[in-house]
Design goal:
Blueprint: E1 3-7, H1 11-23, E2 27-31, H2 34-44, E3 48-52, E4 54-55, E5 58-59, H3 60-70, E6 75-80, H4 85-93, E7 98-101, H5 106-128, H6 131-137, H7 148-161, E8 167-170, H8 177-186, E9 195-199, H9 205-213, H10 230-233, E10 238-242, H11 249-261, E11 263-264, E12 273-274, E13 278-283, H12 287-292, H13 298-304, E14 307-310, H14 321-336, E15 342-343, H15 345-353, H16 359-373, E16 378-379, H17 404-418, H18 423-430, H19 434-444
Parallel strand pairs: 1-2, 1-3, 3-6, 6-7, 8-13, 8-14, 9-10, 10-13, 15-16
Antiparallel strand pairs: 4-5, 11-12
């Protein structure tokens, strides 16, 4: 499940948090001061640190910087008895994952730890991979599909990978744009350098500007020290700008300047910074329409789309679905300790009939769910979500005798069994809030 370090000088809170987090299956360590916390961090390398702001030998806000220096991939969540906006801003700037108030956010702690744990665990796994294994993971050879549309996209990506021109990847959500971006980078002359990905829709306008370009100390309230932006971090390598169509119009001008001159200004600075970065952008929007609506700069579009690759929707290449099923079943079955899993023809037919608005990402989630639900060694249509069952693909007899609440109870029970009773992981897999899950457990007497 992962390791969590709690740093708090209040013994009752330390004991309570340790018990609650430990019951979720995490390995918990305790510290009551900055000094002890740093020693525990070096000794155990936890994925997540839950830290009080006020400690006897220092400030938790400042401690974040020290924690991140020792273990950059560990995520730090700060707890405070009294919310303070400047402290919160500085904590995030120092590298904290989040900043919450004690008492008011008790229901948020476990889901927040689970999210931070997922992020840190993934980062630590990636760190352990060698350059060769990473190269293999993002090899064009492992991109699934034999349809003409996907093979054409792969062929174009292979050709542009050896150049240094900007690339624009288009296609619906979940079609694999980041996989293509990673593969292009891994097959370029920049493969030994950084690959930095940023989702432009995940940040507010001001935060995105700070993340991308960095800022000088004193540039705005809470900016106590100079901070590097992602373009500086990616210098020599590649930056992947996902959902580029969501970027604020005025920020597009700064991006255009980088593409044209290789220079940009940090927030609050007057001296240009020179970087050598390859830009790969992606969008699920129709940028031509965005240009017509004055939401996207036409000159930026032409600079980004020097080489454009469109990734086809899964519903337009249903012949590739069996290949994806085999690949995902092999991965998830091994992870779950299920051997020699088979797939029924009815299951495959049901998948082919589905419109797949979420494309490959949705298919991946459906298959993972099916393997969790499956009692035997065969994936049948019984393991598919109800919304996917079409009359052509499934008989109504499959669910006779079950009302909706009965099916929900059975489904929740199976997922709880799979997670060994871990409520946070169960709520994540079910796609519902932790509070909702507890209510359902009480309602169904699970």
């Amino acid at each position: 499940m992962g390791k969590v370090l709690i740093i708090d000088d209040e013994k009752q809170i330390l004991s309570l948090l340790s018990r609650i987090i430990g019951l979720e299956g995490y390995e918990v360590y305790q510290a009551s001061s900055c000094k002890t916390g740093l020693k525990q961090l070096e000794q155990y390398t936890p994925e997540v640190v839950l830290c009080d702001v006020r400690l006897p030998d220092g400030s938790g806000v400042e401690l974040v910087s020290e924690l991140k220096k020792l273990c950059p991939l560990t995520e730090v969540i700060l707890l405070t008895a009294h919310g303070n906006i400047p402290d919160g801003v500085q904590a995030i700037k120092n590298g904290a994952y989040n900043y919450i108030t004690k008492g008011d956010d008790n229901n948020c702690i476990l889901p927040l730890i689970a999210q931070a744990m997922d992020k840190a665990s993934l980062a630590y796994r990636q760190q352990k991979e060698t350059v060769s294994s990473v190269g293999q993971q993002y090899s064009f050879d492992v991109i699934v599909g034999n349809s003409p549309a996907i093979r054409e996209a792969v062929s174009l990506a292979q050709k542009v990978a050896t150049t240094d021109v900007p690339v624009l990847l288009t296609g619906e959500t979940g079609t694999g744009k980041e996989v293509f971006a990673q593969s292009i980078h891994r097959h370029s002359d920049r493969q030994g350098k950084a690959f930095v990905a940023v989702n432009c829709s995940s940040f507010s306008r001001d935060l995105l500007e700070s993340e991308m370009f960095g800022h000088k100390a004193g540039a705005f309230t809470g900016a106590l020290k100079e901070t590097k932006g992602l373009f500086e971090e990616a210098s020599g390598g590649t930056i992947f700008l996902d959902e580029i169509g969501e970027m604020a119009f005025d920020l597009q001008a700064k991006l255009l300047r980088i593409l044209e001159t290789g220079e940009f200004l940090k927030i609050g600075d007057t001296k240009p910074i020179k970087v050598d970065v390859r830009v790969i952008a992606a969008t699920n929007r129709d940028l031509a329409k965005e240009i017509a609506n004055n939401n996207f700069r036409e000159d930026l579009f032409y600079r980004l789309s020097v080489f454009q690759i469109h990734l086809p929707a899964l519903r337009d290449r249903t012949g590739d679905i069996p290949l994806y099923v085999k690949a995902f079943v092999d991965v998830f079955a091994a992870k779950m300790g299920k051997k020699q899993m088979r797939v029924s023809s009815e299951y495959i037919n049901a998948l082919k009939l589905h419109p797949w608005k979420g494309n490959v990402r949705e298919l991946r989630n459906v298959i993972e769910r099916s393997l969790i639900i499956a009692d035997g060694d065969v994936l049948t249509i019984d393991t598919l979500p109800l919304y996917m069952l079409h009359p052509e693909a499934a008989s109504a007899d499959n669910y006779s005798g079950f009302d909706l609440s009965g099916m929900e109870k059975m489904h929740i029970s199976k997922v709880l069994k799979y997670t060994n009773g871990n409520k946070t992981e169960t709520s994540r897999l079910l796609g519902i809030g932790l509070t909702t899950l507890y209510r359902k457990i009480e309602e169904y007497g699970l």
